[in-house]
Amino acid sequence: MDPNLKEKAKKLLQSSKNILLVTRMHPQDDSIGSLLALGLVFEKLGKEISLVCHGPFTSSLSFLPNHDQIGTALQDKNNFIITLDTTQAKVSQFSYDFDNDGNKLNIYITPEDGTYDSSHVETQIKARYDLIVVVDVRDLEDLGPLYTENTKLFFETPIVNIDNDHANTQFGEVNWVNPKAATTSEVAFEFISSIGEDLINENSATSLLAGIIAETKSFQRPDTTSQAFNVAARLIQAGADQQQIIHNMFKNKSLNTLRLWGRALMNVAFIPEEKIIVTSVTQDDFDKTDTSNEDVLGLEEELLENVGNADVVVICVENKEGTDAFIKPISDMNMHRLNQELRGVLLHDRIKVERKGVDIEEAKKEIMASLRTFMGKTDRT
Predict the structure, then answer these.
(1) Which helix (H) or strand (E) holds 250?
(2) Positive or negative, the Cα torsion across 230, 231, 237, 243?
(3) pTM exceeds 0.85 for this model
(4) Rounded to whole angstroms, how far apart are CA atoms 190 and 123?
(5) Which helix H or strand E contains 86, and what residues bound it?
């Protein structure tokens, strides 16, 4: 990492007043935990912040501070600025009002001496934000419409890029990227610590620890490093509430959700020669347990814990428009190539496949055939 990166990051923060913090479409809890922690730290520094993630998203971290402040689209993208040159005449009085119909704003400026005319006035449109912090994003395209509909903002505004993906395209003025970290929350902790570790309080520490616990599956993932444990220990020392995280993320499943998961476990099949776990959740399952699609979140981990060792988990979910399938590779395989094979949408560590107008059994057969084709190829990593 560039030794000058720390000073460069500090200068960008010192010169900024309004910071936009964004993360990927379909974020993981690691993305959300990092985003919230950074927002809390920047607020502590006296900055105005906006937290944005494009479109609706699901998260098990709704218990964290500021979670309800995460917007799904940019608001107030630009400021319209009127500049008056007061070099020749200082301002004596200033006021404004609206016309009777409320459609026109009138601004009244009275000089102490002399006069003002149109040559003293300039107008400009300026982005509201003077810094963008992008979290857990390999490439700006991963932001979806948040980026494609606001490209000018991203081209004209300095960007701090915080991530742990080795494939990160280094798109920021400051690229705080550490591929050796198991989670983005660890990298966010490094970034905050470089500014001043005393900035981390109980709430921001809890947010970062929640991101680490979620991404490492409570430190059970094989790629969890010693650094993750070290950062977790420092966060607990800083006041992170581990018990609150465990209770809200793992011990507060409703009875209806547990009933839904029970039905999914009854439908499960394990294919040992291919190490695939597959199950189905039908509309009847949702109706009889009074649950919805959001209650499927976290089912992959439950299947892995109860069924056995697998390379891939497949969950087919029936809906009114057809079938959605969620494919989560556990082993090291090329997610982008698998996504192309399945014609799906990449959601960070899983793939969503939509089959509109296709019933659940037909969709399952098609997806399993495509998955077997991919896994049967000699070079799939």
Answers:
(1) helix 242-250
(2) negative
(3) no
(4) 41
(5) none
CA distance 31 to 54: 13
- Copy the structure tokens of residue 239: 């006041």
For residues 52 and 72, the answer to whether their CB atoms sit within 8 Å is yes
CA distance 358 to 34: 38
Assign residue 76 a region: left if phi > 0, alpha if psi is -120 to 50, beta otherwise?
A: left
Which residue ranges form the domains of the chain, and what is each CATH number?
Answer: 5-75+129-248 (3.90.1640.10), 81-124 (no CATH), 255-376 (3.10.310.30)
DSSP 3-state of 104: coil
For residues 23 and 141, the answer to whether their CB atoms sit within 8 Å is no
How many residues does the structure list for the chain? 381
* Residue-level pLDDT, tens digit, the chain, 381 residues: 567 899 999 999 999 999 999 999 889 899 999 999 999 999 999 999 999 999 878 788 999 999 999 998 887 656 677 888 998 889 998 899 888 888 888 899 999 888 888 888 887 666 689 999 999 999 999 999 999 999 989 999 999 999 999 999 999 999 999 999 999 999 999 999 999 878 999 999 999 999 999 999 888 777 889 999 999 999 999 999 999 998 888 777 788 999 999 999 999 999 888 889 999 999 999 999 999 888 888 888 788 777 767 889 999 999 989 999 999 887 666 788 888 888 888 877 788 999 999 999 999 999 999 988 888 754 433
H helix or E strand, kind and range, residue 177: strand 174-177
**Tokens read off for 52:** 């944005």
R_g of the chain, CA atoms, integer Å? 25
Q: Compute CA distances 68 → 30, 57, 59, 212, whole Å.
A: 16, 12, 11, 20
